[in-house]
UniProtKB/TrEMBL annotation:
SUPFAM superfamilies: GHMP Kinase, C-terminal domain, Ribosomal protein S5 domain 2-like. Keywords: ATP-binding, Isoprene biosynthesis, Kinase, Nucleotide-binding, Transferase. It comes from the Bacteria. Residues 69-146 form the GHMP kinase N-terminal domain. InterPro entries: GHMP_kinase_C_dom (IPR013750), GHMP_kinase_C_sf (IPR036554), GHMP_kinase_N_dom (IPR006204), IspE (IPR004424), Ribosomal_Su5_D2-typ_SF (IPR020568), Ribsml_uS5_D2-typ_fold_subgr (IPR014721). Its EC number is 2.7.1.148. Residues 205-266 form the GHMP kinase C-terminal domain. The lineage of its organism: Bacteria, Pseudomonadati, Pseudomonadota, Gammaproteobacteria, Oceanospirillales. It is an enzyme of class 2 (transferase). This is 4-diphosphocytidyl-2-C-methyl-D-erythritol kinase. Pathway: Isoprenoid biosynthesis; isopentenyl diphosphate biosynthesis via DXP pathway; isopentenyl diphosphate from 1-deoxy-D-xylulose 5-phosphate: step 3/6. The active site is at K14, D139.
Length: 285
């Protein structure tokens, strides 16, 4: 056994504070403009070195084969990209709902890339790690770079920004939303005129919206119920393609009060918005 201590690193959630769909590419993927921000809530990945070349991940994720797990896929891609032959024991404490629009899988992958880069002493730059991550998902690079960002393209062209950092109550309405199904929906708005980042920021939170919301509301009534319930109490939006929705609150006590009166059928948590990823804060400690 190696003497190096395990690395314990956060894999935070993200919110899409706004999301516009501005077009559709020839390959079917959609052009987006979105503002990503992190939450101080997420999964935790523990990475321990091994003396052999095995990669192990515990526990198994329900409904996700190991070969598809973004953490193991990230580890294998990193080894392919660098020729590294080392192994690791990985353990995931999963707190984020899967397929909830909180980017949990992408964040897990980014934490694996950054953690293994350190554990294996590879010395890759964040730029190089983000490039490895982009092949796994469009949301991986923002988690690797670790700063709130204005994103364009399919979400990979990033400009760092500092947004307001209120409290959020994030609600999972208990349904799974299929990202491909939302993007294939005939009624999805795909022609929002592109805007500049400056204009999006000047418009402020009151002007921010998610172009997926109408489609998701129509197809998933429970998401519509959660949005309606939250909107009666605070400004509320969908994140990504859902299913999670979030309300914006000034104070932690407001978030606690909202959680206390929420219908028990929904899972919910409070978290603070952060412009610097908790992963990068942890790496500096
Ligand atoms: C739209 C976002 C915003 O954050 O939604 P969430 O996943 O967070 O909800 C993400 O960029 C999603 O990224 P990700 O979750 O990696 O999507 P993928 O698995 O790559 O895509 C699933 C499918 O959705 C469609 N898709 C995805 C992203 C995109 N910009 N255009 C698309 O048309 C494609 O059909 C693709 O095959
Ligand atoms: N480590 C992982 N954590 C979560 N989901 C994963 C992971 N590996 C693969 N997946 C797959 O990726 C899908 C999207 O997961 P996730 O990133 O949590 O949602 P979203 O993209 O909606 O924010 C899941 O439904 C699951 O099938």
């Amino acid at each position: 056994m190696s003497d190096l201590p395990p690395l314990v690193l956060p894999a935070p959630a993200k919110l899409n504070r706004m999301l516009h769909i501005t077009g559709r590419r020839a390959d079917g993927y959609h052009e987006l403009q979105t503002l990503f921000q992190f939450l101080d809530h997420g999964d935790t990945l523990t990475l321990a070195p091994r003396d052999d070349a095995e990669l192990s991940l515990t526990p198994a994720l329900e409904g996700v084969a190991d070969a598809d797990n973004l953490i193991l896929r990230a580890a294998r891609r990193l080894r392919e990209a660098t020729g590294c032959r080392r192994g690791a024991d990985l353990h995931l404490l999963k707190r984020l709902p899967m397929g909830g629009g909180l980017g949990g899988g992408s964040s897990d992958a980014a934490t694996a890339l950054i953690g293994l880069n350190r554990l294996w002493g590879l010395g890759l730059s964040l730029e190089a790690l983000a490039a490895v991550g982009l092949a796994l998902g469009a949301d991986v690079p923002v988690f690797v770079h670790g700063h709130a960002a204005w994103a364009e393209g399919v979400g990979e062209r990033l400009t760092p920004v500092d947004l307001d950092t209120p409290w959020f109550v994030v609600v999972h309405p208990g349904v799974a939303v299929s990202t491909p199904a939302v993007f294939q929906a005939p009624q999805l708005t795909r022609d929002t005129a592109p805007i500049t980042m400056a204009r999006a920021l000047q418009g402020g939170t009151a002007s921010w919206r998610n172009d997926c919301e109408a489609t998701v509301r129509e197809r998933y009534p429970e998401v519509a119920s959660a949005l309606d319930w939250l909107s009666d109490r605070a400004p509320a939006m969908l994140t990504g393609t859902g299913a999670c929705v979030f309300a914006r609150l000034e104070h932690e006590t407001d978030a606690e009060a909202l959680l206390a009166e929420m219908p028990k059928r929904w899972q919910a948590f409070k978290a603070r918005g952060c412009n610097r990823s908790p992963l990068h804060d942890a790496l500096d400690r």
